[in-house]
């Protein structure tokens, strides 16, 4: 089917979804989750084809983003069920007041309509996005990356099988067949069909959507995430947090890319860091982290001299740019100059430094003594997420159910005229 045909089906399905009760939507989600598990063998087979085709063309870290296992499929189904268990965001009365003329004015949450998601190689986005859209009353149109096309299509077939088993419209969940750049541009300019476009992927994809979309578009998270180690930090705790933020899953947008260290802590902390991220990981047979050091840090430990662009790069790999700063104010200034406004952290035992950092750092998520890896809808208790919004209009941070609703005013009178 052409992209326009799929968009027409999606638009027509909006009315069907609006009429479903909360219980009916939850039943649909549970059926989708059951179908994902029932079709696991087929999904894994298609994923194996995608992985094989991608080998040699993308890095091993990115292969890990693409790869599905039985456990990851079980987690996908679990995520859908967790969304079913969340409160329905549709129809909530956000505010209410009665005017002097007797008109009853209610501000009520409503679905956006048709939500389109352009994403890259993470197959779990397919089920996350479909579940969040359906629960929030939105029809979804998915456009996955070519690396994961077979996998994503198999996941959608499974979810649609679950919907069909309940007698529901399969077109509540849609996936585009065209994965070319021209196909993406067609979706970006589908005025009249798409109510919101959410890009979820690398900087190039997000920039293309923001610059070219004629439909409403939310800018999501390129993540140049910083961790600042203050002079008062518990250094043992700090090295564990930095290790987690950098190495637990380096290919995702909430992984740490830049480490800032207070000058007074550097002589003690940087050798601890090198031991943990480089020496110990080599000894354990794990990929060591390449430390790209500013000149001052290079006088304390061995590493690679930082290049001109290293403090403005989302590496998505076992690479960490390291800079020594004079104090928390210089750390804040560095983040302001280089941040993508995703997730940044301060590690400190000084409450005043923590308060200054959280007040002045203008990011979607700001942490004190915790890893940036928590910026995630599931970790925030939202079930799963549509992406991390790094803008300020309508939605910011992990986008869950509430962020997929707008509102309208419902005004009830008794013959009033103006």
Explain this structure:
The protein is built from 14 helices and 16 strands. By secondary structure, the protein is an alpha/beta fold. The strands form four sheets. A seven-stranded parallel sheet has the order 10-9-11-8-7-12-13, sandwiched between helices. The chain has a four-stranded parallel sheet with strand order 5-4-3-6, sandwiched between helices. Helix 10 (235-247) packs across helix 11 (263-283). The chain is globular. The model has no long low-confidence stretch (mean pLDDT 94).
Quote the beta fraction.
Answer: 15-25%
Strand order of the largest sheet: 10-9-11-8-7-12-13
> Cα distance, first to last residue?
50 Å
On the 0 to 100 scale, the average pLDDT is 94
SS element count, helices? 14
Which spans of ≥5 residues are poorly predicted at pLDDT below 50?
A: none
Structural class: alpha/beta
What is the radius of gyration? 23 Å
- Indicate the overall shape: globular
Order of helices and strands: HHHHHEEEHEHEHEHEHEHEHEEHEHEEEE
Biggest sheet descriptor: 7 strands, parallel
Q: In percent, how helical is the residue content?
A: 40-55%
Quick one: how many beta strands?
16
Oligomer: single chain
């Amino acid at each position: 089917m052409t992209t326009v045909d799929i968009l027409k089906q999606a638009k027509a399905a909006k009315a069907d979804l609006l009429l479903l009760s909360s219980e009916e939507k939850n039943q649909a989600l549970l059926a989708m989750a059951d179908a994902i598990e029932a079709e696991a063998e087929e999904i894994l087979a298609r994923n194996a084809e995608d992985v094989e085709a991608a080998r040699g063309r993308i890095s091993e870290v990115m292969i890990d983003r693409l790869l599905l296992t039985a456990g990851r499929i079980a987690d996908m189904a679990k995520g859908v069920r967790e969304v079913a268990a969340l409160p329905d965001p549709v129809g909530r009365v956000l505010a209410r007041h009665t005017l002097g003329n007797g008109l009853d004015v209610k501000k009520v949450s409503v679905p956006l309509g048709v939500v389109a998601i352009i994403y890259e190689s993470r197959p779990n986005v397919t089920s996350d996005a479909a579940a969040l859209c359906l629960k929030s009353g939105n029809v979804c149109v998915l456009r996955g990356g070519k690396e994961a096309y077979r996998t994503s299509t198999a996941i959608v077939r499974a979810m649609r099988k679950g919907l069909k088993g309940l007698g529901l419209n399969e077109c509540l969940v849609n996936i585009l067949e065209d994965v070319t750049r021209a196909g993406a541009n067609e979706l970006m300019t589908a005025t009249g069909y798409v109510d919101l476009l959410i890009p979820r992927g690398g900087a190039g994809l997000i920039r293309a959507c923001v610059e070219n979309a004629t439909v409403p578009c939310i800018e999501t998270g390129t993540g140049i995430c910083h961790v600042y180690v203050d002079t008062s930090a518990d250094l043992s705790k700090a090295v564990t947090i930095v290790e987690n933020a950098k190495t637990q899953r380096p290919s995702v947008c909430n992984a740490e890319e830049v480490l800032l260290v207070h000058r007074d802590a550097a002589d003690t902390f940087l050798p601890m860091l090198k031991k943990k991220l480089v020496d110990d990981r080599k000894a354990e047979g794990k990929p060591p982290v390449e430390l790209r050091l500013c000149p001052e840090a290079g006088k304390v430990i061995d590493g690679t001299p930082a290049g001109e662009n290293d403090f403005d790069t989302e590496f998505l790999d076992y690479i960490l740019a390291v800079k020594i700063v004079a104090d928390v104010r210089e750390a804040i200034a560095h983040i302001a100059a280089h941040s993508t406004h995703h997730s940044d952290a301060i590690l400190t035992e000084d409450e005043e430094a923590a308060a200054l950092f959280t007040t002045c750092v203008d990011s979607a998520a700001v942490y004190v003594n915790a890893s940036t890896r928590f910026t995630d809808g599931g970790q925030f208790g939202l079930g799963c997420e549509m992406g991390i919004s790094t803008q300020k209009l309508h939605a910011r941070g992990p986008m869950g159910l509430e962020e997929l609703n707008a509102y309208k005013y419902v005004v009830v009178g008794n013959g009033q005229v103006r």
